[in-house]
Structure formats: structure tokens, C-alpha cells
């Protein structure tokens, strides 16, 4: 007689392969796929890119508590969780600074994971010049990139 397989409950271990829910893709896989589709530059390359793209919009995707630690000069704060709403021309919470889909955009987060996923998303929304900073704000600061104090975030 075959054993009856029961449905998992909230009390089941997520480490037990018998009860752990299966996922189609891991975060690492999503990041790898996104990185294959978008342009990623390290912080030194980003500094050069910004010098060539003087009209670029720099977007800090970190959470408000991370943003308080300082930012890349001229960066605007749009947390990753609201980026697509801010970039959607039809959304009531859109950000007017994101109306030009051809404007160069440099995205960064703390380590580069959120920014590469966000860059992929904006490209899918029709933005044509999107760059993600590999290594994020952490590497920017490590290589001596300028860090400026931040005003209070409207998202705090």
C-alpha cells in the first residue's frame, strides 16, 4: 500500500525536503538572468560613465534606513519597492523625473542585487539607457567615491 502524502502545514520545517515548498527560481538565478540582460558597471566605471552622461539621473534604491548613511552625489531616493510605480506613466504615484524613457539612468543599492533586478525591470518598461552599479553603495564607498549627506527621505 502506498503511503499517503499529506499537505504541508505552517508548522512544518522549511529545511525538510519533504515539506519545504518548491520554488521555480532562486534569487541567485534571478540576479544571474538579470545581469545577462543589463549593463553593469563597477563604481570606478560608473564615475566615468557619469562624467560622459551629464544628464543622467542617479537613483538610490536602498531602504530609508540605508539611505540615511549617505548617498552618491545628485542621487534621488526611490526605494526598490516603489520603483515601477514611480516609473509608470499611468500610475498616480509616478515620479515626473522618470518621464523620459531615453534619459540615462544609473541605479544603485547597497550591494548591487536590487539594482540589477531594478535595471532589468525598467528596461522591460521601455527605458533605453539603464546601468546598474555592481557592488552598489558599499563598493562605491570602498573605492573612495564621494558620499554626501542625505536629506530626509520622503519614503521614511
Task: Please provide a written account of the structure.
There is one protein chain. The chain is α/β, with parallel strands linked by helices. It has one domain: Rhodanese-like domain (Oxidized Rhodanese, domain 1). Helix content is 31%, strand content 11%. It is built from six helices and five strands; from the N terminus they run H-E-H-E-H-E-H-E-H-E-H. It has helices at 27-37, 43-52, 64-67, 83-87, 113-124, 136-142; strands at 39-41, 57-60, 76-77, 105-108, 130-133. The mean pLDDT is 92.
Low-confidence stretches: none
Lateral arrangement of strands in the main beta sheet: 1-5-4-2-3
Q: State the total count of DSSP E strands.
A: 5
Assess the beta-strand content as a share of residues.
Answer: 5-15%
User: What is the name of the CATH superfamily?
Assistant: Rhodanese-like domain
Name the helix and strand elements from N-terminus to C-terminus, one letter apiece: HEHEHEHEHEH
CATH class: Alpha Beta
**Given the helix and strand composition, which structural class is it?**
alpha/beta
List the helices and strands and how they pair.
Layout: H1 27-37, E1 39-41, H2 43-52, E2 57-60, H3 64-67, E3 76-77, H4 83-87, E4 105-108, H5 113-124, E5 130-133, H6 136-142
Parallel strand pairs: 1-5, 2-3, 2-4, 4-5
Helix pairs in contact: 1-5
Summarize the structure.
With 156 residues, this protein is α/β, with parallel strands linked by helices. It has helices at residues 27-37, 43-52, 64-67, 83-87, 113-124, 136-142, and strands at residues 39-41, 57-60, 76-77, 105-108, 130-133. 31% of the residues lie in helices and 11% in strands.
Amino acid at each position: 500500500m502506498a503511503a499517503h502524502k499529506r499537505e504541508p502545514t505552517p508548522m512544518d520545517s522549511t529545511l525538510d525536503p519533504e515539506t519545504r515548498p518548491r520554488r521555480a527560481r532562486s534569487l541567485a538565478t534571478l540576479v544571474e538572468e538579470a545581469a545577462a540582460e543589463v549593463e553593469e558597471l563597477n563604481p570606478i566605471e560608473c564615475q566615468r560613465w557619469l562624467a560622459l552622461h551629464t544628464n543622467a539621473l542617479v537613483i538610490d534604491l536602498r531602504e530609508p534606513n540605508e539611505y540615511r548613511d549617505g548617498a552618491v552625489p545628485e542621487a534621488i531616493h526611490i526605494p526598490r519597492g516603489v520603483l515601477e510605480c514611480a516609473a509608470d506613466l499611468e500610475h498616480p504615484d509616478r515620479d515626473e523625473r522618470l518621464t523620459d524613457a531615453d534619459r540615462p539612468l544609473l541605479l544603485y543599492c547597497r550591494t548591487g542585487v536590487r539594482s540589477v533586478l531594478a535595471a532589468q525591470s525598467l528596461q522591460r518598461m521601455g527605458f533605453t539607457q539603464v546601468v546598474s552599479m555592481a557592488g552598489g553603495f558599499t563598493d562605491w564607498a570602498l573605492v573612495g567615491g564621494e558620499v554626501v549627506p542625505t536629506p530626509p527621505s520622503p519614503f521614511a
